[in-house]
User: Fold this.
Amino acid sequence: MAKSIADSPSGSISFVVAGGEYSDLCVPLLKRLAAALRVDDELILVVRRDHPQTATFRPEVLRVIEIAGASIYRMRALLPKICQREWVVLLEDHTMVEPAAIDEIRRLIRERPDIDLIPFLGKNLTSTGRWGWANFLFTFAPVWAPLDHPPPFSIVTSAVVRRSCLGAGESLKDGELELAIIPGVYRSGKFASSNLIFVDHIKPVKFLAALALNFHNARSGAAIQLDLGHGRRRVIREGWRTFWKHPRRMMRTLTARRNELPAGTRARLYALGFMYLVGNVTATLFGGGGSVFHID
Assistant:
């Protein structure tokens, strides 16, 4: 019989990897997590049933949950229903974490009983092409490790969250985790961070793929906001700010680290911002369409 949440030992972790398919793309991450499991932890992979499952690695400790026609928002919305440990470590299938990050997560959980959230910071160790850098910064610039201060709130889809923050055993609404629960914990101040806790975001995209990715991200995100009751004007304003102000704000915050970036990064950020605005407007006019199945 599965353990109830109340029976879960203190410090136990549900490691959850969410992604489109069970392929060799996520195998390195699954191997890293499987090696780090303790007796009271669990390892879960959530994928779309309509994608071919082609991975050559499937440890006995892994529980695979397949959902037909599910978006990544739907996969993450399942967390309250599928996780039975005190803490949830949520990761994307195209990320990697270091063993030191997992050790540091366990340390903070043990030493900071007052917190409900540990945000992942980001590093770009693998996708170091020009457009790979721009795509990384467009999302991760505010939390690009190392930081010399606590991170600002940033919509990043990897996090460590106390299971009780997710409510009872029913699924969340699509987008509720990303747009309501995590921001709410940030506002409460019940979080801690560490420069050791980061993901390497592995998306080696080039020009067209980077533009398409940010279009789909924006369109699906705007559609989710509308479904959650956000007004159309509010959604459009967010898209405009992301296009017009976000690149300038990012480059100002990155002034001391510009020597780490490829030449032309600012222009590429504006290009991604424009595609974000196009996706945002498209969602307000026509809905999310197939973009919900193509997001990062």
